[in-house]
Amino acid sequence: MPRLPNETDLEFRKRVLDSKSTSFCGAKWYNATIWLGSGMTTSCHHPPAHFVPVEAIQRNPRALHNSAEKKRDREMMQRGERPPGCEYCWKIEDMGRDAVSDRVYKSVIYTDEELNEAYLLPTAEDANLRTLEISFDRTCQLACSYCNPAFSSTWVRDIKTRGPYINLVSDGRNHFTHDHASAQLYRYGEVNPYVEAFFRWWETDLHKTLRELRITGGEPLMSGYTWQLIDWFKQNRGKSSTRLAINSNLAMDSEKIQELLDACEGIELDIYTSNEALHSQAEYIRDGLEWDQWVENMRLLASSGRLRGLHNMCTINALCLESLPEFLDFLVEMKREFGRDFPNFTLNILRFPSFQSPLVLPDDIREHHKQRLMSWMVKHKGYNYLHEHEINHVLRLIDYLDVVKTPHRETFERPALHNDFRKFYEQYDQRRGKDFPATFPGLANWYSTLYD
Ligand code: SF4
Predict the structure, then answer these.
(1) Which residue's C-alpha comes closest to atom 6 of ligand 1?
(2) 51-74 pLDDT per residue, tens
(3) How far is it, in rounded angstroms, from Cα 281 to Cα 291?
(4) pTM beyond 0.85
(5) β-strands 40-42, 31-35: how paired?
(6) Atom nearest to 46 CA in ligand 1
(7) What is the DSSP secondary-structure string of 154-222?
(8) How many angstroms is it from 120 CA to the middle of ligand 1?
């Protein structure tokens, strides 16, 4: 087991990670997200993704993960230096309250021996992946406010038919101004060498060493390659001990979810979904989602008896805080009905686009939400259906709202973010037929002060 009995997250960090180096993180060796549509990869969700040249993966499909950039970051971590791309973790650790960053959560899932091996691995050598998140393409039926055309074909359609969002000054990466053609280098039906390399790698050795394969999107249930992989698992029973997991927005008829459950009969499966607000607020943030349908699908999955786990990943943004405590109550109610892992949850703080981060909110509103979360914590702490990581995620969000007052590196100052907050949601309302002040009454007054 990676932890000693009764060892806390912080104790684990000090014993296993910091004893190697104070910047060591197992995710750099053993975890990857790979976008096959664009040939991009990263270690966890936080560092910016980077491109892997096609020649590299044609020579060696393992280069989908073992890129030159990751090898350089590993070397930095072995020397105790902080790779700049991991700023998310450094920001949390620098809060000075022994705050537990994702460096711990992304490492604690590996054994002490695996982490020792990673630390000692010569930089030039390839690491064998243990946990992988893979995206085949960006086909998706939703266009969430903090997503963009790189990850959603519905966002592509929005930009292509209505043009770019205008007058945004902090969107340095131009998320909302073009269709991100580079996110899909190959047309549907064309041979994609990255997909080919992945299946080559999978068939030869990846299926032997990988512990968890998580398929993401777009919406993976809309990609034929997802169903192809499910078929591989069915036809090769016993050949691989890799656990299969699927990220799904669950914004579809329950028949499709039932089809998935039937197709995965006998396969160990985890479903990861995302939501962080209730009813119309969720539908506003996640454009295209129907709250009732999402709840119906959550209940279908939780009651199916076929899943290893059902996970909800909350993306903590400026808009969700208003109904977040009640949304967490909803998750707790489901736990009471279906068990501790149906669902479990994580709170992941949105950084980009930075004008949608909780840090754009004025101090009094942030303080108000902090107090509400503290009350939620008092109400639920000690409740044994909550996992330690769930309690810690709520506590660290409380800390974050309290301590981190400046936006992250690479972002603009508050006036620019406020300008973009207002300009973006005005256009979003107009394009998507929505109404910000009516949907978020707790923010309406402040929003009205953001006029030119
Ligand atoms: S951002 Fe944090 S969790 Fe992700 S690879 Fe870097 S140190 Fe690890």
Answers:
(1) 86
(2) 999 999 999 999 999 999 999 999
(3) 9
(4) yes
(5) antiparallel
(6) 1
(7) HHHHHHHHH----S-SS-TT-TTTS--GGG--S-TTS--HHHHHHHHHIIIIIHHH-SEEEEESS-GGG
(8) 18
